[in-house]
Amino acid sequence: MNPSLDFETCWRAVVARDARFDGRFFTGVTSTGIYCRPVCPARTPRRENVTFHASAAAAEAGGFRACLRCRPETAPDFAGWRIDGAPSGGAWRGTSNTVSRALALIEGGALDGGDVDALAARLGVGERQLRRLFRHHLGAAPVSVAQTRRVLLAKQLIHETGLSMAQVALASGFGSVRRFNETFQGLYGRPPSALRRRSAEPGGTIRLGLSYRAPYDWPAMLESLATRSAAGETVSAEAWTRTLDPRVDGAHGRISVWRAAGGAERLTAEVEIDTLSALPGVLARARRVLDLAADPVAIASDLSTDPALADAIAARPGLRPPGDWNDPGDDLPSDRLKIEDPALRARAECWRPWRAYGALYWTLAKETPNAQAA
Asked: How far apart are CA 68 and CA 37, in angstroms?
């Protein structure tokens, strides 16, 4: 078990199926060899048969395979929050930004064609130090994290799309169909095609769910995206669309995202793409633009200690700053601040590592100083 995970806290979350912890850790069940999300609807396992893992990669490295019922690939993005008795992220973020930056680069494909040495150099740390940080915070090596991301994306594509197995292999970042088949056979004891529970018609459009942690003020996000008028992007009353640029994305096509029906804590992404191997990078950039890895509860908890922000946060929970499609990953988007006023910049130091969110709520507080929940 990862030392950053508190057993009692994790166990209570599993028993209660507490959605606040979804994606923060995964439960390995030794009697079945399966790992699950804390919200898995299956019968709660016996306490003595569980181990807790800080990431899906750590669970798979421990010999567990993903649950076919709760589908760990559909959990909200893991962004490195520490479990120590309460869902809080500020302390961990403040001391291990390197891991968050590395995760963003891995999601964008940094280890699909490169190695850990190159990734560490890009982050300005030694290769051994990066491996140590990953072991401490995620319970797995960077290469294992990258492979698990490929496997879970492939599993989602199998469940939610009509792509052929060869297409799934390309679209999830595997270098070859043979490697794809061998990996799934090793993890699940069956070929990947056996995981497809329904017949599926192949097509040129890929539609996937993108999970997030509630609350998420989707109308405010669309308004922010429309206001910034970024090249290649269009915004309607319900959806955001980005035209792909082969010079950046390695493919022609487009991605559109809108809120899923039925109140689910998911967005729906529809992708038309002529080079399937470019899909992981496109999805990673879309998640960054829409800030899907944010934990609004942890952010609100930290920022509400500033009385100037507390009322605005209570009035409009779930505000998120849109990210950049092209992002070097040199620092955390959550902490970027575009404020020229020296006095305000000095105040914003207490908002770290959430200064970008603090600036949103500062603006809201000034516009509606007596705002009530709406």
From this structure: 11
Task: Please check the confidence at residue 264 and state whether its pLDDT lies above 90.
Answer: no
Asked if 303 contacts 294 with a C-beta cutoff of 8 angstroms, the reply is no
Longest dimension (CA), the chain: 61
Q: What pLDDT is attached to residue 137?
A: 85
| CATH class for the region spanning 7-73 | alpha beta
Q: What b/e readout covers 187-220, taking b as 16+ CB neighbours within 10 angstroms?
A: bbeeebeebbeeeeeeeeebebbbbbbeebbbeb
- Whether residue 268 is predicted with pLDDT greater than 90 in this model: the reply is yes
**Any idea what DSSP says for residue 144?**
H
What is the sign, positive or negative, of the torsion defined by CA atoms of 227, 102, 123, 303? positive
Does the structure show a pLDDT above 60 at 374? no
Query: What gap in Å lies between CA 250 and CA 274, rounded to an integer?
Result: 9
What is the C-alpha to C-alpha distance for residues 190 and 336, in angstroms, rounded to an integer? 45
- Two tokens at 31? 């009697």
CATH code for residues 205-275: 3.30.310.20
Inter-residue contact 14 to 67 (CB < 8 Å) = no
* Cα(110)–Cα(325) distance, integer angstroms: 16
Alpha carbon distance 42, 36 (integer Å)? 9
Cα(269)–Cα(271) distance, rounded to whole angstroms? Answer: 6
Residue 54 is classified by DSSP as S
pLDDT in tens, 160-175: 998 999 999 999 999 8
Copy the structure tokens of residue 353.
């590592």
Q: Output the pLDDT for position 369.
A: 54
Domain ranges of the chain: 7-73, 87-195, 205-275, 296-367
